[in-house]
């Protein structure tokens, strides 16, 4: 599994991430929180997309519905906010199950098309239902528990929850289920022929992915204290897919790296020009052209090649 | 053990399998031969549930398995390998074999246990048996064609089948690889009592390995019988072996 050297690296990274809020100013801490939660969002998208071979093209629905679920429970009910943080993702997972049941009958691109249509329907509901969801205004000033209401508190909460979620996703991918899922990605016919019920395994991947997308949405509520309909809009889903491809959709942490790249580009380039998407587009094209496996995929390939050369020498 | 009765399947009006009959007894090796496009692979796809037949019946150990989905047929302990290599290209040789074993043991719903702790010995044992142990950590997409065909068979065996279907097991193999593969197939029946159904273009292999032969032409069964019967059948020689020379092969 993880080598000793790898473990030391991980502990070092974690330490740095823990110390960050004590050193950096508020703006950068906020930015890091956003990177973490977008990273979790993209990585949950990558479970069906990169490891399951399912065209999960409208993942933002689960992210947005998770966020709205949490926000509505906090603002409209007397339940504890801590409970709301769990209810949001669960609502997202339930929606994942319902939409999955409908879409999974189709395969490949047809799956993605139907998912985009159904997702847009959810968006229209949220956008139009003023009395309940606040329509295009969204919901603002959502109060979260005191301990995580400061920007540092929100950051630590995002760090802990993202870390836990990544651990769970990693374990899932290394479990027999995870390998079966990757087998389905490579070859669904063969998977069925070794006795795997392809559709049901894919459906579970969709539910897990929806749950963690909802978790990421909930983290956004904690970090930003708002929700708005753009969080459900399909352009955000496109961004998530780009994060996966940019970072490396066949690697575990690739989408996290992709999320960091996009958030950084958007934040810093947009101070110079409103056409920040143009810069992103050019970078994206270059990456797809020269590093078809994404940035982290490229690094992994390099590492493997060096290791192979070393093995040959032995 | 396996009985196929007047099976039919057409694609857009083209009758790919048109009245195929087949009967395989326990412990036999049966070969299906026929010209390209005779419907051999379609027949195998119908038996294993990848395609649903238009009419006709497939019986396995007396039980009707016509039109069941592939994963259910697999659980009846029928395994197959494919003509065109059909493995999990991005997974390693080890993972390919391991997941086939884990699937048989119904472990694919396990989300908790690291798979590096499950069925390791059995996987290694199987890989040693087929001669892929040294290459177990290679990504299967990077293997040679011959090795991937052997991996195909290893994955089929991982299902611990009673009945094994091999679709052109030696297609595209070098002569040495072919010999190794034939030894493997014969060993399977002798040592593990497997019943095997295969199709093959190389007549030498067919006559050497098979107990009985079924001949298919344009989707229909012409004859099923021993090697001798098939060699001397006029219809077969006409349609498949090119006519005239009696009992030459």
Q: Please report the number of helical segments of chain B.
A: 9
Residues in helix, % of chain B: 25-40%
Helical percentage of chain A = over 70%
Annotation, overall tally of beta strands of chain B? 10
Average pLDDT metric of chain A: 91
Low-confidence stretches of chain B: 244-249
Describe the structure.
- By secondary structure, chain A is mostly helical.
- Chain A contains 14 helices and no strands.
- Helix content of chain B is 36%, strand content 24%.
- Chain B is built from 9 helices and 10 strands.
- The A-B interface holds A 1, 171-172, 174-180, 182-183, 185-187, 189-198, 201, 204, 250 and B 48-50, 69-71, 74-75, 79-80, 82, 86-91, 95-96, 98-100, 102-104, 107-116, 118, 155, 158-159.
Task: Please name the defining characteristics of this protein.
heterodimer, A: 314 residues, mainly alpha, 14 helices, 0% strand, B: 249 residues, alpha/beta, 4-stranded antiparallel β-sheet, 9 helices, 24% strand, globular, disordered C terminus
Entry summary:
The complex is a heterodimer of chains A (314) and B (249). With 314 residues, chain A is mainly α. Chain A is built from 14 helices and no strands.
């Amino acid at each position: 599994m993880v080598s000793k050297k790898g473990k030391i690296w991980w502990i070092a990274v974690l330490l740095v991430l823990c110390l960050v809020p004590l050193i950096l100013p508020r703006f950068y801490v906020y930015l890091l929180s956003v990177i973490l939660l977008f990273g979790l969002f993209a990585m949950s998208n990558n479970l069906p997309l990169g490891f399951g071979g399912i065209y999960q093209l409208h993942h933002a629905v689960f992210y947005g519905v998770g966020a709205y679920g949490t926000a509505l429970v906090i603002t409209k009910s007397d339940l504890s906010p801590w409970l709301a943080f769990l209810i949001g993702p669960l609502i997202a997972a339930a929606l994942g199950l319902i939409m999955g049941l409908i879409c999974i009958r189709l395969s490949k691109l047809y799956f993605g098309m139907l998912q985009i249509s159904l997702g847009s329907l959810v968006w229209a509901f949220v956008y139009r239902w003023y009395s309940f969801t606040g329509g295009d205004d969204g919901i603002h000033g959502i109060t979260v528990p005191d301990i995580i209401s400061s920007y540092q508190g929100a950051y630590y909460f995002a760090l802990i929850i993202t870390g836990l979620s990544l651990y769970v996703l990693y374990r899932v991918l290394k479990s027999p289920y995870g390998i079966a899922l990757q087998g389905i990605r490579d070859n669904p016919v063969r998977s069925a022929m070794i006795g795997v019920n392809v559709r049901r395994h894919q459906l579970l991947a969709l539910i897990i992915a929806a749950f963690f997308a909802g978790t990421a949405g909930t983290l956004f509520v904690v970090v930003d204290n708002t929700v708005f309909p753009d969080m459900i809009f399909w352009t955000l889903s496109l961004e998530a897919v780009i994060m996966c491809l940019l970072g490396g959709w066949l690697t575990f942490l690739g989408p996290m790296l992709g999320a960091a790249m996009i958030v950084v580009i958007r934040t810093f380039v947009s101070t110079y020009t409103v056409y920040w998407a143009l810069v992103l587009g050019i970078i994206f094209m270059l990456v797809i052209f020269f590093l078809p496996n994404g940035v982290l995929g490229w690094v992994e390939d390099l590492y493997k090649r060096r290791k192979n050369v070393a093995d040959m020498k032995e | 053990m396996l009985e196929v009765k007047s099976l039919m399947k057409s694609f857009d009006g083209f009758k790919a399998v048109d009245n195929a009959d087949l009967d395989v007894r326990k412990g036999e090796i049966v070969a299906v031969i026929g010209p390209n496009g005779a419907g051999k692979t379609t027949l195998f796809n119908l038996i294993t549930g990848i395609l649903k037949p238009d009419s006709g019946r497939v019986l396995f150990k007396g039980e009707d398995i016509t039109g069941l989905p592939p994963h259910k047929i697999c659980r009846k302990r029928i395994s197959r390998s494919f003509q065109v290599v059909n493995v999990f290209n991005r997974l390693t040789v080890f993972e390919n074999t391991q997941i086939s074993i884990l699937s048989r043991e119904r472990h694919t719903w396990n989300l908790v246990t690291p798979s590096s702790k499950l069925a390791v010995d059995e996987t290694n044992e199987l890989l040693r048996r087929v001669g892929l142990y040294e290459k177990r950590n290679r990504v299967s997409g990077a293997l040679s064609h011959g090795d991937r065909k052997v991996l195909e068979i290893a994955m089929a065996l991982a299902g611990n089948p009673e009945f094994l279907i091999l679709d052109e097991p030696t297609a595209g193999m070098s002569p040495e690889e072919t010999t190794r593969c034939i030894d493997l197939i014969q060993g399977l029946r002798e040592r593990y009592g497997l019943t095997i159904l295969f199709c093959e273009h190389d007549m030498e292999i067919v006559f050497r390995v098979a107990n009985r032969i079924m001949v298919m032409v344009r989707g229909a069964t012409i004859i099923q019988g021993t090697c001798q019967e098939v060699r001397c059948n006029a219809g077969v020689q006409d349609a498949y072996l090119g006519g005239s020379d009696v009992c030459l092969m």
